[in-house]
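Re: CU-O-CU linkage structure - here you go.
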Amino acid sequence: VGTGGSVHYDLVAQAGTSELEAGKPTETYGYNGAILGPTLRMRRGQAVEVALANHLPESDHSDTNLHWHGLKVPGSMDIVPDLHQGIHSGETALAAFTPDQPAALLWYHPHPHGSTGLQVNLGMAGLILLEDDVSDALPLPKAYGVDDFPLVVQDRRLKADGSLAYMESMGGKDFMMGERILVNGVENPYLDLPAGLVRLRLLNGSSTRRYAFALEDGRTFHQIASDGGFLAAPVALTQLRLGPAERAEILVDFSKDLGRSLFLRSEAFAAASEEAEAGQGRGFPVMQLRIARPGTARPVPGSLTPVPRIPESEAAMTRRFGLEDTGDAVINGKTFDEMRVDVTVSAGSTEIWEVTNFATTIAHPFHIHGGQFQILSRSGGELPEGERGWKDTFLVSPGETVRVILRFQGLSGRYLYHCHILEHEGAGMMGQFEVQ
Ligand code: C2O
Ligand code: CU
Ligand code: CU
């Protein structure tokens, strides 16, 4: 709801009750509701104001703040009010910025150092749908909840009494995986779809779990967007790999399926031993899709929007980041220190960042705040077509080096980079860069 060309949202962080298991109420946290938060619509060039009120019950983890994952905003707005102090229960914080980047599926979540993982596990996260003239003009399904569906996929673990477990019975492992799969905060979910071309906007909102999304019958679908917006052209796939915090939009043709039902699944994939032990890499159903009503058959567009590649020659320098998880989670031998600026970059410059995973036991999803960048290469093999668009998070497999190119334009102040396994982030696998 906006006046004078700007849009204002009120978010109230609160506790509530979700029924994740029949007959057993589960205490969850959400924004304006019991679990997750409303989808915030934003438009390129339109000013946004978000007021966050903290109504969480007071506890040792009730201080909170808000981060705009994937949005390019000034450092002072990247985490509101800031990384170090959350707002206490009963207080309010205000964020104001004007998005200026391509249409994309982005998200928001709390980022209070030390309790990010816990708060997200309890349900605090929401989506941002950023639109622009390009997304308006493309002939794609865009009727929200009719043929265009946002799907937040998360894994959770419940204790016997129905409450959410966090980092318990994990056998001393420093990451959180659950065996219950929720979509938009619901377990055993189903979705009624029209028999036509359908757009699914997927967020892997899990802390650690990766997914290999596929349709039960192995049919081909098309990826049209990555983290930061549309790809140059749709990419035909039968399986889509998404690490924690990554997003993708896909088009699936159900025009010949009226009356049928099939599952969206995550298929089995190879995982490093430590992860596999915790249940990573197994196949399972994610959600039931019921093709319940007539829809509009339409073609998958041949192209979407140009994504000009940032030339490597534009980069002033290359920096290297080594990820290790022996003992403490560290980057370049250091654990996070909020008083330390690890990297200083010049405003307006372009750099290449090379991220190497020296660990052998787990893949790390590396995330850099401050908007969107491009992946140049993966030492592990050819860069998949679906990773040739705008990105803010990417998986780095054990032993792999991923090179990305970033333009520090329109940024100012301090931002974070970190592993998006929230328990690794909490353990200090995070650094700060400052744009000067
Ligand atoms: Cu999803 Cu530091 O972010
Ligand atoms: Cu972020
Ligand atoms: Cu990690």
